[in-house]
Amino acid sequence: MDERAFTRVTEEYARRLYAVAVRMLGNRADAEDAVQRALLKCFAARASYSPRWAVSTWLYRSLTNVCIDELRRRRVRDETTAVDPEAASPAVHARATRRGVGGAASTPPTSTDRIDLVRALDAVPREARLLLALHYVDGLGYSELAAIRGISVNTVKSQLARGKAILKQALRAGGHDGSD
Amino acid sequence: MDRTDARLRELFAVETPPGLGRRLREALRNEPATLETLLDRFHVQATERGVSRLAYGRGHDVAAGRGRRHAEQARHELGEYLGGRRTFFTVPVDLAGVGEFQERVLAEAERIPFGEVTSYSALARRIGHPQAARAVGNALGANPVPVIVPCHRVIRGDGSWGHYAFGGALKTRLLELERTTPVLIGCTSTRIVCRRGCAHEQRIGEDRRVVFASVADAGEVGYRPCKVCLPD
Q: Which value does ipTM take for this structure?
């Protein structure tokens, strides 16, 4: 894939990549940073792009790798902070605060219904949340989700079902009707 | 499609910020430089027990006998670390001549995970000397093997960097490198998850790499931890 083709692909997918990143990372600044880093990695590896992959699979694999690693750092940071409240620097604390709960801090909610949904989504485990985001942003099917995360189609189905079940349970616990 | 489906679809319809495409195109034009070009500026001293000193600037490697093997291993691992291909060091260090207090401080610094930071005062508390933040700073400042023993992961409580033997600019670049280097890599064909830098991880092809946030997350989707690098 040459540079011009890659730029065209970037323009076509930027909006969807960004939407997935916002829902994974919870704020717009980190999401844009993640999209940028993911595209830079793809750009550096553009010569080795194989047409046997769908472009979307290739881009989403790169994006999800970046987003998941950012979530790993937050997990370690949160654990460190829980044990030792002064362990993290103020800058780190500011960053964690800015993140808010599942994105409520920087994505202006339009209704309480939406806030509840964002909070409920935060209760869903990372891998399932990632699959939900990819599935609902771009309508990706089971086999492409499996290719993106390197897992079996059955695992994709069970993770999506589990994610939705936890989501509905969290909505009910929050006093919101999570029924169909 | 149930009601939750419809609500999720609506939730995920995120509005794109103005100028996103332009900013992304600019970023692609300015590919970041790799730190690996700095490798020649590092100089290793090693004894038969391990790396005894790492210097930055002018100089050359100093090692004799079995120490040469350690020096070569240190240089190799350092190159991989600076290139974002390694997140831990396996080369032994020789801290002979280092006092007991400094040894405890350096051992505690070594436990700070890749990509994380802690403060001088937090490290002082962890070694049981909560009032000794300044002494901890001095002990880290005299670290004979920076980078390998990651004293750059310790910063001031107010978020500023504090002193770094190799200079504040390099400390910034090392922390930025660690912030953008993934740690847990899974292989999509073997379904094994390794730490970045493990010999098995280095054999995984670019199109078979997936990143995980934890070993437990990887286990939930059918991956097992590598028995060689033992990720936790």
A: 0.84
